[in-house]
Amino acid sequence: MKTLRKILEFLGTRNGIRVVSVVAAVAAWYAIRAATSNSTLVTDIPLAIQPPPDWSVVECSAKTIDVAFLGTRDDLRYLNRDLIKATVDARDQQNNRTVTVTLGPANVNAFGNARIDFIRPASITLRLDREITKQVPVKVETQNLLPDGYEIEKTVVTPATVVLSGPAQILDGVESVSTAPVDLDGRIRSINKRRLPLVAGENFAGVKLDPPAITLDLAIVERSISTRFPDMPILPMLPPGRSLRIDLDPDVATLTVKGRPELINALAAEDVRLFVDATGLADAPAASLPIRAVLPNGITLVRTEPAAVDARLKD
C-alpha cells in the first residue's frame, strides 16, 4: 500500500505528469500506427515515359510496376489500378545513352490518402532516341505456290512506298516493309486485295506506318513458252468442187506459236498447217491473202512471217 501511495503521489507531481504524458503519447502513436498500417499490393501498373519532343523510348527495362500501399482500411478500399498513374519524366534526357531512374512516391499518383510503402522494381533503365521519318518501298510477301502452268505476270502495289516514323536507330536499318502474306495456293485468277495490311518488323517498337495498308493487284496468267517453225508450206483453200491452179508468193512462211511448256515441247511441224482462203480468186484473179493457221488445242498463234502472201490464178 505504501508503494502504491508513493506512485500515486509521484504521478501527481510535475515530473509524474510528464511521465504519464509520454506514456500516453507512445500508446497513442502505436494505436494510430496499428490503425493505419494495413497494406495492399497493386501489381502491373502501366509505366508511362515522357520523352522530350521529337524523341521516343527505344528501350525500357520495365513496362509495369508493383506498388505496395499503407493506410487505413478505407484508404486502401478505394485504390483502383485504373486510377493509379505511374510516370517517369525523361524530358531532360536528350541523348541516346542508357540511363537509370530511381522510382519513388513522386512517380506514382494515386487517389486517396494511402501511403507508398515500396515500389517494385525500385529503379528502371531506359534509352531514348530521336524520331525521324523515312520513305521505303513495299515488298509483297507470298506463301505457297501457284498451280502448275500458272505464273505471276505483273504486280502493282498502290502506293508503292510508305512513310515510316520512329526512332532513328531502328529506321536507319530498314530498307523496305512487307505486306501480310498472300496465299497463292490454288490461284488461277488474278488477285485484287484492298487494304492489305503491312506487317511491322520484329524490332519495330514505336514505329508508325503511313498508310498502314495498301492495295495489291496481282495479275496471274497461264504460263506459256513460244517456238518457231521456219519454212512452213502454205496451202491454198479452194472453193468446193473447183480445181484451180494458184501461185503463192511466197509459198512458205515462218510460224511462231505459244502454249504451255508441256504442249509446246511435244509439238511438231506436222501438227500445224498454214493456209490462205483462195475461194474468192474466181472473181479476182489476183489478191493479197492473210495467212491463217490450224493449230492443236492449247496452242495459240503469235504471228506468221510474212503475215500475207500474193495469190494469183494460173492460166
Briefly, what CATH class of the largest domain?
Mainly Beta
Query: Mind describing the biggest β-sheet?
Result: 9 strands, mixed
Shape: rod-shaped
Mean pLDDT across all residues, rounded? 85
The total domain count is: 4
Instruction: Classify the beta-strand content into a percent band.
Output: over 45%
Would you identify the regions where 5 or more consecutive residues have pLDDT less than 50? none
Structural class: mainly beta
The CATH topology of the largest domain comes to: RNA Polymerase Alpha Subunit, Chain A, domain 2
Distance between the termini: 168 Å
Please give the number of β-strands: 24
* Tally of helical runs: 5
Order of helices and strands: HHEEEHEEEEEEEEHEEEEEEEEHEEEEE
Radius of gyration: 45 Å
Approximate helicity band: 10-25%
Features:
315 residues, mainly beta, RNA Polymerase Alpha Subunit, Chain A, domain 2, 4 domains, nine-stranded mixed β-sheet, five-stranded mixed β-sheet, 5 helices, 24 strands, rod-shaped
Q: Would you kindly provide a written description of the structure presented here, covering whatever features stand out?
A:
- It is a single chain.
- This protein is mainly β.
- The chain folds into four domains: 2-35; 37-130, RNA Polymerase Alpha Subunit, Chain A, domain 2 (Beta Complex); 140-222, YbbR-like domain (RNA Polymerase Alpha Subunit, Chain A, domain 2); 225-313, RNA Polymerase Alpha Subunit, Chain A, domain 2, CATH 2.170.120.
- Helices cover 15% and strands 50% of the residues.
- It has five helices and 24 strands.
- The strands form five sheets. Strands 2, 5, 8, 10, 11, 12, 14, 15 and 16 form a nine-stranded mixed β-sheet that branches.
- It is rod-shaped.
